[in-house]
Write a structure and sequence with these properties.
It is a single chain. 41% of the residues lie in helices and 22% in strands. The chain contains eleven helices and 13 strands. The chain starts with a helix and ends in a 12-residue tail after the last helix.
Amino acid sequence: MKEIGMHRFSARLTLACAALAAAFGAHAQTTLEKIQQQGKVVIGVRESSAPMAYALGGNHEFVGYHVELCEKVLAQIAPQAKIEYMAMTAQNTLPLVQNGTVDLGCGPTTNNLSRQKQVSFAVTTYVSEVRMAVRADSPITSFKELDGKTVAASAGTTAVQLLRKYARDHKVELPTQLGKDHFESFLMLEAGRADAFVLDDNLLAGVIANSKDPQGYKIVGEVLGSEPIALLFRKDDPAFKKAVDDALIGMMKSGEVAKIYDKWFVQPIPPKNTSLNLPMGETLQQLLQEPNDKPLEAYNS
């Protein structure tokens, strides 16, 4: 019996070692080598995160500020590769990038220290401010006025943690209902099931612009936190990070990033041909002059 047990243990050990070897083997190949070998690159996008990354129409054409930046970067570093678009959510972005399913994450993902344990980030390409959307006739102007009222937020977003921190620090009750994406969260506000929807200002502006009644909502409240938003990719691949960063920094220095920003945040955008009217803030202007990949903690310390 002991011998059979040992054989089973040995077989399990061999299988475990094989799995480990496969994992190490997969990561021994760089992202650029994988793209070259497969002739394609998988970019992670979002369906409802206008103007950063969102789907248009029934055929799911993906567009937005970060999508265009990703496409321009890949045109430089992997010009022969065919781009495949994979829709992600805030919750599954990190696992899909970490396990190599997605080569380049192009959604609006905040760069913070805990996420840096799982993935790597490019230089910052947007700095958002977390605020709230309320109905245009709402008297609410501060988060303190939400005490005891229902707040909507999207699962997996940093707004959820910021709301908890605000509630603790200011000793208020902020009952929070989580939507699976920004459309679902906004629907709670639209239907009157929530008094406010808390999210990055750029994404709030995008959801409002694409709503049935863009004039029916406003963005108010103090800034809960400034967040550096960046493209992301798997850890431990310095060659890929350098290639992406070099391409982005070149576009920053040439003025191309500023033009792409203007296209998505200031000019009218599809599908309703409305403008978000969000000119570039001072923090991002400074970052285009002096690019860096500092995490969230460096902004709100």
